[in-house]
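Onboarding guide, step 5: your first structure request.
Type a short instruction followed by the sequence, for example:

Predict the 3D structure of this protein.
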Amino acid sequence: MQFEVTEKDPEARQKLSETHKRVEELAPINRSLTRDQHERLVAALKDGNSYKIAIRREPQTPETQDYSDQFASVFKEAG
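The system replies with structure tokens like these:
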């Protein structure tokens, strides 16, 4: 989303600009595993011991669901 400062008052313009920067800092980072990371994790886990694991995810946050699904795929592939 693009953000444009249109306020004419210099003080308000500055506050608006600072608020915009803060919002950008707080915006969630879309985490994901690269194909290389996926393959490296699978390779590392295949040579290890077998463990039961549980993956907890926040159902209201699609980003965490996607990320946890990527890890679930790694563990399934690793056996």
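Each response can be followed by summary notes, for example: The chain has three helices and no strands.
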